[in-house]
Amino acid sequence: MIRSSGILLAFALLALTACSGTESDFTETSIADLHDQLQRGEITSVELVDWYVDRIAAIDQAGPALNSIIELNPDARGIALSLDREWQAAGPRGPLHGIPVVLKANIDTADQMVTSAGSLALAEHVPSEDAFIVKRLRDAGAVILGKANLSEWANFRSTRSSSGWSSVGGQTLNPYDPARTPCGSSSGSGVAVAANLTVVAIGTETDGSVVCPAGINGIVGIKPTLGLVSRSGIIPIAHSQDTAGPMARTVRDAALLLTVMTGVDADDPATSDAEIHHDYSANLTADGLNGKRIGILRSFYGAGSNPNVEAIYDASIAALEEQGATLVDDIEITTDGMNDAEYEVLLYEFKADLNNYLSAAGAPVQSLAEIIEYNEANAERVMPVFGQEIFLAAEEKGPLSDAAYLDALAESKRIARDGIDGAIEEHQLDAIIAITNGPAWMIDHANGDSFHIGSSSLAAISGYPNITVPAGFASGLPIGVSFVGKPWNEKQLIEIAYAFEQATGVRRAPEL
Fold this sequence. Notes:
The protein is an alpha/beta fold. The chain is built from 17 helices and 13 strands. The longest helix has 25 residues, at 403-427. The radius of gyration is 21 Å and the shape is globular.
């Protein structure tokens, strides 16, 4: 549900009027194709913005009402017009000049939009400064089209939550089957890209929140190495795992977006050690798998428990071999105790990091304790579907100097990093492949999510990179595969993912 202020409604009506009667169709169009059309003067950025707003009104807010966009940017058309004039006068700033981008609603923008994390407690929170990655996007000439719905508080409020539901935005639906989950927590970002409601989007991940909605919605998602992308200006869960990541319909588009997002940020010390590549989209070739050694992870989080998923995975592995990759089958990675230690870490860091963000941002609520009080006082509106038991557990935690926290942090990192490093070094691997997701489960507000197949935790906890690419369909529902590698190895993983994408070509837009 788009915020129903008069400004936004007027903007939407204006754009719809401007776009009525157009014969343009930008579905499944890549950044490079749009850039070429802009360069030739065949289209303008204003026309792109109009077209996407028109499509959002027709598909996201009517018809199947996917409900992926929580808010439109009332400045988008004016920004696009300014960028069109700049292009005519001085040429483009780069490949994202004039390209619409949607942001997850936990990413700060200093404009007329709010940064709510989907929570009514922050429904009027307007930051005074852009997040670092938003500054990077604006400098590159991207048009911030709007903000995407998400699992409220990035899916860290309740153990019985429904992915894609927030008290501000309601329930986001899967474009391949509206009765099924879009996964989360970057639900709206994934759905908006899959349904061609934007060119590209940005999500955030602590554990699975980019790669799961990317896989379940049949798109590409990149979870970067921790520190490659700045976290400043993003509502946090846990600084030891949080990162933003690009979501796109193609590997190349995701790589173009990642290139713009990276950079050293004085407000995020983790970026000072980042090994940044100047262009993650450069030198992508169809033969990028030739000679690569890929380890196959089969027994992780239920992978293989669905015969249709297992068949897709086997076909994906066969495609790797056909493209010249050397495969090491059924590698073993021990993860005993990893998830319990991770949860302890997240509880501690969520309380500390969120309190720091809220106080520094001058938010309407200043602490986790105040949010808990707000939710209890407004339970009918905020908690009609699920509660806040994770909030309550986090509030009970002490400072980050507690031995329980420090021990859990060290243990979770050791298990995850030893698992990946050990497998890569023992078998001299370039990457590890795993199933990203099983078929999307039914939305169930009575019982919550029924997630059962996934592989995100190793990369998430270790802080290592993870890229998911569409791999097939099970009963009409998208299935992705993930490529995981060593830290700062995004460039090689992108080359591998691109070659896999070119060899398989399974991406198919939803029928809306």
